Structure to design on (1113 residues):
């Protein structure tokens, strides 16, 4: 497999501008002869569709939602980073680049990350011009805050709804193009296959979710912007419809998958409260600025938190990491919460929770200040749990939140399948093994607004395309194939629900391929997953009929793909015998129990190539070379 | 002119006319009420006022024409709006429960409006038309007014109608400002209260007239 | 977590296979419902039971389950998103119901929101309204430096208040006239509050309002049910401001150029 990253030569600061000059252009009059399919309407998809249409390409956009604005990007709360350095606190493109490479634990491609930092400022310009109502100061200028432990204030935000506002900006830009007639929108369509003709991605097959019919669409290039696969764990902060199916279809058609085991766990989520739980809710990271994390020192202490005296409380983050305290990075905070709960010190009915206590902050700053800072978060917490966090400490527990892994792409965002570009969370992103807060929104928009419009032109201009349309046999073949899968699902009529299987898979993934992983557990998971999958294909119950609006069937198809994919994720986790970022291998830790990277053996992207059903995928490495940022061990002691 | 008709075509435009016509009707009501109040000073004053109006000749015909147009457009648009609102909710909820936005008055605008329309017709027949047909002067009209309210059924219908008017105004008065874009987070709340006060005032104001008329007749 | 309890409910749910086939109410028992569940989780549990009994589960739209995507929503006992103020259905928890309650669950009803199945309705009319002008025309790459546009904090805040709309359609569902004014006015005011939105301000108001009418939404009678039902508590003053923009637009900015 050819894993040419196509990183341009030259100094890192000039790579992107040189590359932009060197790339071929498509004549303006010819642009409308090219058709582009965009799958997904999150930040990545909407921004790409709008920008490409503005250039004159013919764009078809697909989403499984009823409207583009429902994409999961809408849920991002915290903010978006940019190297504007408005606060004059020493930020720069170089620093954002440096922080992102370091934050990613040296598992991302330097050139990509630099480009991301470079573009970050344009994103803010673009969004402001679109009318995104970012927070302002009294002077009318943009306000910034520090986020996710960053040393500088580089995060732009719109209350607690930054993702929503950025998505509405990109969505409205796309809507404008729909009105102009150069974007056609197809909602409630789920991608089920990618059609490859003469070695190039030339179209897709979707299932019309309203009537269950398959529809084929051809194009000159396909953009996959279908988000992350956190729902492989069943419980995550991802929306219910987030899936791996689109990426998985691409993988099966020849697009290699990179670093699937790089998943991010967010420390401050509302804990699980019962078997019926359908998803987890994120509480903003900013809460750790004033909240103190603790558990009782005694196992099985059932007293009310307020009745537990100070010296019987274990402030584990403050004790273990005196200099960062409660503000250690996401992965460290998460792992420690799990550790104390594993020791039996957890609180709440499930014992899988730790306290996040604001009583000291309230004493010190007054209720009013806390209310100003976190009022909406406290309300949200109370709405969900029925507990008033001004009076009782919150309970939190880590949850799957983001997936750094994804379809492998080169510097031009093209996968190993020519003509298939992958943007946003769906690609194996620029975040290495760990994403910094407020960087996913930045990356999705960078890909869509400012990278793909250049690189796709180059692809068109340097390739020739045979004339094909939806009548090509490859489309009907693909439709037949997927029809068979669907019929198989419908015909099982077993006696377990789809969710039941999904939950079972999620439990295995969380227990053995979650926050902390070891060889034994991973191998066990590799045995269990195929067992669950086998039973799924024998005993799942899908009600209704296939040629109808059938949400059970939709779910079943997605869970079927998760069951396949989970194995790849686990395999990747097993293969990477080092700890880095969100991937913690118990075999690879320092004496103090901290993650230990192994740069000698694992400074690479792990890339998996599909080999056929039930066959072990081929493993490839894309070496990572760090010329500008020298790898160092992270320490938060 | 074409511009003014064009506004008519949209929902917001229709409500704009609804509001303006409603406001003008309110203005008319103020005039009407003050005219009627002359009864307080006796039949003579009232008759003098009626004769004065009749004496303005073409002016009063013109004013009545305008008034009729205002009424007609308010009524016409009220019907159009109500029908299109019903059409927009093509299937009714089997259970519907207000969350506290609606008030009795807002909910019943089309119905209070309809009752007012009936009242208007009867009222016109009772006095305006009869006066023209019979060629009465002010004094004869004054006598007729006093006489007519001795009929208990008529008296109750009038009282009922002016209460309905009060209800219509108690929503209409603030609503009209919102419809023409005069809105504010705080001041609109004051308008809402004021509308209720006005509704009561108009109802009481108009309701006293028949009693005065009847008292005078004794 | 607060004290958890289990309750039993009777659900009367609107079932309708598709827009062309008439629907009807079906009665289901929801037993052993933990008060910690969200409303949608309660439906999940009922659906699992239905599925195991070979009955097709109740179709309902949902996605984020944290009150931001705007996908969920139906009418519970006559109120869009249920009875809790400022709360989407997915954030409504069962502790707000009592043991033995009967819940009547219906889809959002409006001519402009045709039913797809059961509780799922087609809200694409909202997208069409946005297409008619709910944007600022700025091409990628042509934006000026962000700090060159000053926005008074007050305007930024008002814009954000309006922009918080999640496009769920509860305003239409709650309005006795099925009017979309709150939705449309939220977008018009979000952009209209900002300097960036000024060049297209009046044109936007005209086009969006005309589109809204064309799609069969009702008129505004100022009942304010929309404001009361809005899970994001968008204020009705937005509607007044929109009316103002429209009238000014029509009377003073009605250039041929439109
Ligand atoms: C709760 C939460 C909070 C977050 N907060 C932040 C934050 O503060 N800052 C930050 O930078 N990042 C944050 N993130 C991460 C960030 O929001 C996401 O990584 C990012 O928005 C992903 O955007 P996207 O465009 O790649 O995908 P998405 O927004 O997930 O969009 C995916 C699109 O693909 C479509 N789709 C998916 N599968 C298919 C299919 N099979 N067929 C057809 N269409 C399909 C969907 O309909 C959707 O339109 C947060 C994430 C979560 C979960
Ligand atoms: C003197 C009598 C009347 C007065 C002072 C009056 C006043 C008003 C006012 C101020 C409004 C509010 C407009 C707005 O919301 O912008 C209104 C609304 C309304 N009026 Fe009248 N009105 C009168 C008579 C009538 C009559 C005779 C009808 C008969 C059809 C009528 C039907 C309506 C209806 C249906 C509305 C509500 C329109 C809507 O909001 O959809 N009114 N009226
Ligand atoms: S499911 Fe997203 S708002 Fe309720």
């Amino acid at each position: 497999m050819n894993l040419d990253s196509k990183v341009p030569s030259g100094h890192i600061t000039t790579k992107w501008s040189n590359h932009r000059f060197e790339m071929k252009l498509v004549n303006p009059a010819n642009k409308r002869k090219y058709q582009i399919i965009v799958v997904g309407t999150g930040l990545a998809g909407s921004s790409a569709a709008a920008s490409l249409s503005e250039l004159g390409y013919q764009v078809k956009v697909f989403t499984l939602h009823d409207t583009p604005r429902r994409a999961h990007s809408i849920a991002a709360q915290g903010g978006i980073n940019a190297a504007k350095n408005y606060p004059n606190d020493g930020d720069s493109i170089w620093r954002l680049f440096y922080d992102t490479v370091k934050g990613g634990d040296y598992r991302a491609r330097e050139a990509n990350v630099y480009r991301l930092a470079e573009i970050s400022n344009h994103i803010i310009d673009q969004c402001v011009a679109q009318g995104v109502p970012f927070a302002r100061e009294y002077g009318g200028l943009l306000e910034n805050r520090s986020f996710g432990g960053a040393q500088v204030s580089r995060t732009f935000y719109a209350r607690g709804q930054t993702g929503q506002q950025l998505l509405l900006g990109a969505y409205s830009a796309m809507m404008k193009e729909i009105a102009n007639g150069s974007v056609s929108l197809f909602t409630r369509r789920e991608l089920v296959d990618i059609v490859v003709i003469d070695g190039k991605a030339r179209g897709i097959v979707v299932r019309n979710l309203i009537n269950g019919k398959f529809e084929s669409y051809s194009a000159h290039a396909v953009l996959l912007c279908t988000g992350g696969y956190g729902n492989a764990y069943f419980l995550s902060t991802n929306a219910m419809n987030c899936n791996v199916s689109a990426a998985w279809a691409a993988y099966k058609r020849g697009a290699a998958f990179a670093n699937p085991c790089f998943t991010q766990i967010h420390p401050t989520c509302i804990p699980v409260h019962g078997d019926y739980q359908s998803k987890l809710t994120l509480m903003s990271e900013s809460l750790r600025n004033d909240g103190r994390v603790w558990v009782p020192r005694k196992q099985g202490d059932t007293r009310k938190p307020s009745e537990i005296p100070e010296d019987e409380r274990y402030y584990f983050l403050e004790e273990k990491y005196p200099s960062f305290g409660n503000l250690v990075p996401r992965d460290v905070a998460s792992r420690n919460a799990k550790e104390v709960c594993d020791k039996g010190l957890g609180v709440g009915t499930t014992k899988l929770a730790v306290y996040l206590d604001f009583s000291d902050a309230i004493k010190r700053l007054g209720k009013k200040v806390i209310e100003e800072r976190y009022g909406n978060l406290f309300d949200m917490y109370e709405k969900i749990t029925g507990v008033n966090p001004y009076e009782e400490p919150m309970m939190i527990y880590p949850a799957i939140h983001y997936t750094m892994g994804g379809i492998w792409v080169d510097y031009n965002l093209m996968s190993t399948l020519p003509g298939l570009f992958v943007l946003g969370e769906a690609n194996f992103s620029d975040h290495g093994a760990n994403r910094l807060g407020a960087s996913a929104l930045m990356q999705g928009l960078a890909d869509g607004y400012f990278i793909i419009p250049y690189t796709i032109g180059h692809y068109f201009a340097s390739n020739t395309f045979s004339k094909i349309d939806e009548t090509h046999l490859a489309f009907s073949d693909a439709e037949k194939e997927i029809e068979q899968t669907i019929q198989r699902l419908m015909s099982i009529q077993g006696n377990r629900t789809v969710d039941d299987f999904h939950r079972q898979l999620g439990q295995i993934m969380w227990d053995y391929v979650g926050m902390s992983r070891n060889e034994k557990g991973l191998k066990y998971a590799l045995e269990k997953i195929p067992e669950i999958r086998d039973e799924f294909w024998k005993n799942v119950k899908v009600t209704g009929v296939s040629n109808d609006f059938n949400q059970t069937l939709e779910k079943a198809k997605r869970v079927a793909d998760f069951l396949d994919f989970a194995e790849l994720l686990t395999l990747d986790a097993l293969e990477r015998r080092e700890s880095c970022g969100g991937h913690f291998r118990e075999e690879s830790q320092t004496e103090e129990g901290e993650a230990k990277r192994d740069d000698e053996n694992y400074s690479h992207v792990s890339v998996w190539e599909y080999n056929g059903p039930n066959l072990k995928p081929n493993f490839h490495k894309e070496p990572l070379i760090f010329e500008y940022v020298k790898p160092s061990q992270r320490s938060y002691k | 002119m074409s511009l003014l008709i064009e506004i008519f075509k949209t929902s917001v435009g229709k409500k704009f006319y609804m509001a303006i016509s409603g406001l003008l009707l309110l203005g008319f009501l103020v005039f009407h009420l003050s005219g009627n109040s002359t009864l307080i000073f006796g039949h003579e004053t009232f008759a003098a006022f009626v004769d004065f109006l009749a004496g303005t000749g073409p002016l009063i015909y013109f004013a009545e024409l305008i008034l009729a147009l205002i009424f007609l457009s308010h009524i016409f648009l009220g019907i159009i709006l109500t029908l299109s609102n019903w059409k927009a909710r093509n299937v009714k909820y089997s259970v519907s429960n207000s969350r506290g936005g609606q008030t009795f008055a807002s909910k019943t605008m089309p119905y209070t409006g309809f009752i007012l329309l009936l009242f208007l017709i009867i009222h016109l027949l009772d006095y305006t038309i009869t006066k023209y047909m019979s060629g009465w002067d002010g004094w004869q009209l004054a006598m007729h007014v006093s006489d007519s309210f001795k009929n208990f059924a008529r008296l109750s219908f009038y009282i009922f109608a002016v209460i309905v008017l009060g209800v219509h105004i108690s929503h209409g008065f603030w609503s009209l400002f919102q419809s023409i874009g005069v809105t504010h987070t705080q001041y609109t709340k004051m308008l809402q209260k004021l509308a209720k006060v006005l509704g009561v005032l108009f109802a009481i104001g108009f309701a006293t007239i028949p009693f005065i008329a009847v008292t005078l007749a004794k | 977590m607060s004290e958890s309890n289990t309750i039993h409910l009777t659900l009367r749910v609107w079932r309708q296979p598709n827009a062309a086939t008439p629907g009807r109410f079906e009665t289901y028992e929801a037993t052993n419902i933990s008060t910690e569940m969200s409303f949608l989780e309660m439906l999940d549990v009922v659906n699992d039971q239905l599925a195991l009994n070979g009955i097709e589960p109740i179709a309902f739209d949902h996605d984020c389950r944290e009150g931001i995507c705007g996908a969920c929503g139906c009418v519970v006992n006559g109120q869009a998103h249920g009875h809790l103020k400022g709360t989407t259905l997915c954030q409504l928890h069962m502790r707000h119901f009592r043991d033995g309650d009967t819940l009547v669950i219906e889809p959002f009803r409006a001519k402009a929101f045709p039913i797809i199945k059961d509780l799922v309705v087609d809200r694409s009319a909202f997208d069409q309204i946005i297409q008619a002008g709910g944007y600022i025309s700025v091409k990628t790459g042509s934006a000026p430096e962000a700090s060159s546009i000053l926005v008074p904090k007050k305007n930024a805040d008002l814009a954000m208040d309006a922009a918080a709309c999640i496009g769920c359609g509860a305003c239409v569902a709650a309005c006795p006239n099925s009017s979309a004014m709150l939705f449309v006015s939220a977008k018009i005011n979000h952009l209209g509050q900002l300097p960036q939105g000024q060049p297209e301000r009046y044109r936007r108001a005209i086009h969006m309002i005309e589109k809204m009418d064309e799609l069969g939404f009702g008129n505004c009678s100022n009942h304010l049910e929309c404001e009361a039902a809005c899970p994001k508590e968008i204020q009705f003053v937005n509607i007044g401001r929109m009316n103002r923009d429209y009238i000014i637009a029509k009377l003073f900015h009605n250039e041929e150029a439109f």
